[in-house]
Amino acid sequence: STIVLVFEAPSDFEFSIHPGQKVKVGQKLGDV
Amino acid sequence: IVDAWTQTPTKWYPLPLAVGALLLVAIQYRKKVKRARQEVELNEDGLEVIKLKGPWHVHVIGALPLRNMSRLWGYVNSFELPVWFRPYGIRLYAYAFGCNLDEIEPSDLREYPSLGAFFYRKLRSGVRPMENAILVSPADGTILHFGTVQGSRVEQVKGITYSLDALLGIERPGSPSSILPHNRDMSIVDDHEFAIVNGIEYSLEQLIGSSVPSTPGSETPSQPSASSSRTILENHSLPSDDHLPKRVGDQTDASVGSDRNAEETLAHDTSVALQMGAKSQTENRRRSITSSKHVRPGNSLFFSVIYLAPGDYHRFHSPTAWVVEKRRHFVGELFSVSPWMAKRLENLFVLNERVALLGRWKHGFFGMVPVGATNVGSIKINFDQDLRTNIRGRRPPPGAYTEAVYSAASPILRGQPLTFGEEMGGFCLG
């Protein structure tokens, strides 16, 4: 299964992940 | 046979190879032009016609009875296992799919009556601390893709995109939407989205947990400004702060089982408290319709896709503090959503069964879309008991959805308030 997040954020929002990375609940995905 | 083989004369002709080669080049060129122009077929509404596109094996998979297979898989996994066998069977499953048995709750494997129950296991509280960021992962899994939405097209993988409207559905005036039970007339918040309770002003974020972690007690509710023309509510007390998500040094455990009573109390009080701030209903109602179209200046639309492998923990949590205003359930196919499939099947996420939860957070529009797959066709939402997925029966055309509005959950916030890390639901087998 998959979860798709689509969200509006300030244009300087930055992801702190990379494709293929394993993540867990509560792990930082990105920040402004 | 020997005579025929030896006597038959062999005649050699020069084959026009060049013609064949030119034909191949022409076919390749046509394919490339078609792909480059992203030829999108539009229907009478001007919406993209979503259909199966991809290499031949995708069409073979598409011809399979995926939904029946999914329901059969779920049925088989719902068989009750003998108590003595459970530890062995579940350990075998855990070994095969790489499940971490040290962090499950309950830890005694005999307490899981079936493999389906083990698949929908909980985690011990404390095993998933919340990091200090405005957006955290809603689930355990692998990052499939992420980026910025360009011109309402979302990139599935490099080179393949799908339509955001097709994923989330578009606002259709008069579309059938059921308001969930205990329906009360919708009341809308005014611009500042804050409440005055017993003479004290609470910001919206204080009510549902700020999306930026802060240590408890630092949010001193400001005294109402003299000019505030809002009615002061009498004897409505918000629950004490200890219902808000605690952030001790920015570490907050994912509340694996959300505290429904406190939530309802909070929601009810905020709904009454904020009702007084309503401006004209129509003006706010128009603003309140969540749509990814109206992005505020200086903002952009982003997306992130997380793939949950069969051995991962399959409950999902709130990735930020937000309010879910509505949900759209798209009855679709149940293709596998593995990275292998995502690279080959275009429109995978808009072909599959999914539940689009639409709402807003402190920066504007926020949407979260759990997408089902062959082995996990059922999607559960804790605050939406009416939702049924992967059900038998005639399938509506791709793109059709049923909508439910959560305004009654907390009319003041116009939806279901969710705090950081709160459990929202999960995926079940079958």
Give the distance, in angstroms, between the N- and C-terminal Cα atoms of chain A: 28 Å
Percentage of residues in helical conformation of chain A: under 10%
The share of residues in extended strands of chain B comes to 15-25%
Question: N- to C-terminal separation of chain B?
Answer: 59 Å
Structural classification of chain B: alpha+beta
What structural class do you assign from the helix and strand content of chain A?
Answer: mainly beta
Q: Note poorly predicted spans of chain A.
A: none
The largest sheet of chain B, given as strand count, sense and whether it forms a barrel, is: 6 strands, mixed
Strand content of chain A: over 45%
Helix tally of chain B equals 12
The radius of gyration computed from the alpha-carbon positions of chain A, rounded to a whole number of angstroms, is 11 Å
Major sheet details of chain A: 2 strands, antiparallel
SS elements, strand count of chain A: 4
Please name the two chains that share the biggest interface, counting residues whose Cβ lies under 8 Å from a Cβ on the partner chain: A-B, 30 and 66 residues
Helix percentage of chain B: 10-25%
- Which stretches of chain B of 5+ consecutive residues score pLDDT under 50? 175-202, 207-260, 271-290
Mean pLDDT of chain A: 95
Question: Could you report the average pLDDT of chain B, rounded to the nearest whole number?
Answer: 73
**Cα-based radius of gyration of chain B, to the nearest Å:** 27 Å
